[in-house]
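User: I'm putting together notes for a lab meeting next week and I want to include a structural view of one of the chains we've been expressing. I don't have a solved structure, so I'd like a prediction I can at least talk through. The sequence is below, exactly as it appears in our construct file.
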Amino acid sequence: MRLAIAEGGLSSIFQGLSASILRQMTYSMVRIGAYETIKARMTNGKKPSTTQLIISGAFAGGLGGVAGNPADIVLVRMTTDARLPPEKQRNYRNAIDGVIRIVRDEGASALMRGVGPNTARAMLMTSSQMATYDVTKNYLMMTSHPKIRLKDGLALHIVASGVAGLVATTICSPADVIKSRIMAKENGSLTQLIRKSLRNEGPQFLFKGWTPSFMRLAPNTILLFVILEQLKGLYRGVLTVAPS
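Assistant: Thanks for the context. Below is the predicted structure for the 244-residue chain, given as structure tokens.
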């Protein structure tokens, strides 16, 4: 972060903000909404098993990955643009400008470039993040150890979501690295990219950037679940007071 500010100024850390917002409005909205719906349909009101939570997350993540792929491409390009030579920089003004220019210059199909790795990453992210949160939350509420037992409330939501962020970052790191490298490039197959990266950097390239990824995902996950729990509480309150 210090290097980015030193080279590009304070505004550089907000590069791609519009694309990040568009991504959350597509990818996150679809996967979170679909997860709750799929989980409810799979369990029929019963307590879900860990396997059911993982499957629900995988299906929901796949839907979110497809929905958010265009915004993801624009986000990757906007945040890596400064690393390119000046003649190769795209200089998208915002996310919408990026989508329009990709369709105009490369065709609509370019918006689905990397959709396979992106969907795989979204399935891993949602299944690990959502399932870990639900499992951790239930464990901390039901555990027989009084020193770690927590009541349903803000502290429980923060702890469970922090664990979910840690697990999700670790599980998704390989898919995240591959996805970003595919979307940042215009040519080259997945196999060629992996072979080249393994040859030049070794298998550890799959976890390159883990620390900044966790620094981004941990607060994102905590805010996501804390706000989601509050909204679910408000929704249940509305249903309770609504006239029959």
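A couple of points you could mention at the meeting. The mean pLDDT is 87. Residues 19 and 95 are 5 Å apart (CA to CA).

User: Perfect, that's what I needed.
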